[in-house]
Amino acid sequence: MITNTELEYKGDLYPSKIVSFEHDSDSISFYTNKSVILKVTVLRDSLIRFRFTTKGYFSKDFSYAIDKGHSHGYNFLEVTEEDDYYQIQTSKVKCKIQKADMRLCIYDLEENIILEDELGFHWEESYEYGGNIVKMSKASKEGECFYGLGDKATQLNLKGKRLENFATDQYAYQKDQEPLYKVVPFYIGLRNKKSYGIFFDNTFRTYFDFCHERRNVTSFWAEGGEMNYYFIYGPQMEDVVTTYTHLTGKPELPPLWALGYHQCKWSYYPESNLKEVAAKFRELKIPCDALYLDIDYMEGFRCFTWNKEYFPDPKRMVTELAEDGFKTVVIIDPGIKIDKGYSIYKEALEKDYFCKRADGPYMKGKVWPGECNFPDYTNPEVREWWAGLFKELISDIGVKGVWNDMNEPAVMEVPNKTFPMDVRHDYDGNPCSHRKAHNIYGTQMARATYHGVKRFAYPKRPFVITRSAYAGAQRYTSSWTGDNVATWEHLWIANIQVQRLSISGMGFTGSDIGGFAEQPSGELYARWIQLGVFHPFCRTHSSGDHGDQEPWAFDEEVIDITRKFVNLRYQLLPYLYTMFWQYIEKGIPMLKPLVYFDQDDIQTHYRNDEFIFGNQILVCPILEPNSLGRRMYIPRGEWYNYWTNEAVKGGKEIWVDTKFDEIPIFIKAGAIIPKYPVQQYVGELEFEELTLDLYYKHGQEKSEVYEDAQDGYDYKKGRYSFLSFKTTGKENELFIQLHKDGKFDTNYSKYKINLIGLPFKIQTIEIDNVEVAFDKNTLENENYLLVNKDFNALHFMGE
Ligand code: GLC
């Protein structure tokens, strides 16, 4: 019997001996005595690109994933030739390339192996399509761990898994089901406490095998295109993720309302139904910022049309909702109904904007409207046209956000659920088949949508959400995890998917809260909302064919829990916004799995459930019915139980009691957590003070608060307010130093500082070195201090 392994090697070709090399500024090319060339480009000291060709020359270099604005530059680069190998050294790593077979190995400067080729680059020629099936294998060490790869519905540590990247409409997917909607061919390896990353920038169908087929081998391969990957050195996971995110790009700040709570269903119609939903939120005092219109708002599912029977006057309706604080978001799918009386169809046909089959006819497939043609979003002219189509929706009607769905692209009633592979695409002037364009189709649609919404929303910020995405899509759009199911297992999956997407550069994401397919019990819905408010994108959505999924579809207790947790999210908006700012400024993921938080602690390497929200809040969802608490791992350091303010020392697994209306939440000691008052929607209230919850720590901790006008682009001109706090706790003393930056003056004039866990009784307070009289009663009973926001230093002394 032939084993898998033997099959994989059958027909494989390998590079031959390196015979010469050329060094040209940041690139070093290695030539073999056949046609293989390896081009190594040093982008930064810890970011190196490896590009192979088997043709004797390289094709045009083009990538949708790489952010054109990413900065290059290294401090040191030296290339040396030894008897058996070449060495490339930067200020962070050394890469040795064997002359005999082109295999390479990357070391840190202390000669520890970071990444080592097993067979290295090899390939199989594709007779049917031309080109190669390109393959890479790396030797893996015992104890090595793997993370990343986007939306995979499996355990966080990918060791032992084989995964496939091919954007797929995977309705009601299950745990471990492959492939899913998104394609992020980027993973993080953790070996001997050092992290590195690999980004395999290849849009064909790709596979990754993390010690699944062979225990000590990790491999990745693609059905076409180039072996073209980026190596990123840590050694901290934060270095890897921020470098990757820098390379593939960061989004702009979303409008703050987009971080509020969103309510969706397939579908709210007619207008009276949507208005009832809106009114009920306000009546029950559950904050909500956005309402969604799913496909039924359209006329026969024709994009950019309205069903005038259900929605006779969209502009009036959208305006009325806006007056009550609701932003309207509408769905737009890629399939354009084949209908001669439909102007968008006619225009696209006249301009020849639809994708074509290899032999000429337009690509035709069934989606919601029936037979459709599909714009080729990989053509810049088509994207420009598409962007222009948003004028009426955004400028005239006042819609605030657009939801792109079915853009894998999904096709109904066909076995592969998508286009046939012979469909042609422009690929921005690099014509190709669907084999190459499939995985980026959704991203190019979202990109065109983003440019349209941005153009017409200006000077406000756009909001776009997509289901399918390739690496780099985060520059244009938020996303959600597709058609999940109302099961406890899916709650577990959602928790992992959002963490994983977060460390894969695509942080602005969330799951359909409560589950899309099937009906959640009240308990499951409550547990889901308790997790969902800690996801950067927070939206309840359901398929609507099994009953309602608004909070009031459940009993009073669940309604109260929903309100309590959505309230908490609205209080934490300045904290969440600061996380977002750290993401767009520095590429720091908004959610951090425990392994990211403390990779040196091997207890974290296989944890799935607990995560850090931002930098200082540890969250652990309840994932089972009838729970009175759960076991969880508290990472090293000191923490406070958010509900009881009890101090806990980390570095151990503990049992945490919870009630139905709580999940385990811990705050890092020393943290200052900024809070707004509860509002029913962003901007509802003007308030006098910003609450700062300070959790005392013996030692130092830093906290940041970013604010701006909450919408618009003035922040790019310096009109933001950035607060950087340093807290230092000593025996009987607490210092708070505040450094301010930016030209935005917040509306409030005071901070209300809540002092939590203070181990001494305050006797004296100095503000900017001046002792102030204070109302002892206030401090002693309430433990808070109201102080003008213009201070630089606060000093509490006591005994
Ligand atoms: C797809 C989407 C879902 C949407 C439905 C109807 O299944 O994933 O969110 O509600 O289509 O548009």
Which band does the percent of strand residues land in? 25-35%
Q: Biggest sheet: strands side by side, in what order?
A: 5-6-7-8-9-10-17-16-12
Oligomer classification? single chain
| CA distance, first residue to last residue | 79 Å
CATH class type of one domain: Mainly Beta
What form results from the Cα inertia axes? Answer: globular
Characterize the structure shown.
The protein has 799 residues and is of the alpha+beta class. Among the domains are: 18-234, Immunoglobulin-like, CATH 2.60.40.1760; 298-476, Glycosidases (TIM Barrel), CATH 3.20.20; 686-798, Immunoglobulin-like (Sandwich). Helix content is 20%, strand content 32%. It is built from 14 helices and 51 strands. The strands form ten sheets. The chain has a nine-stranded antiparallel beta sheet, with no helix packed on it. Strands 31-30-28-25-21-20-19-33-32 form a nine-stranded parallel beta sheet. The chain has an eight-stranded antiparallel beta sheet with strand order 1-2-3-4-18-15-14-11. A hairpin with a 4-residue loop joins β2 and β3 (37-44). α6 (380-388) runs parallel beside α8 (434-457) and α10 runs parallel beside α11 (556-571). The longest helix is centred in the middle third of the chain and has 24 residues, at 434-457. It is globular. It starts with a helix and ends with a strand. Residues 1-8 have low confidence and may be disordered. Bound molecules: alpha-D-glucopyranose. Alpha-D-glucopyranose (GLC) binds next to loops.
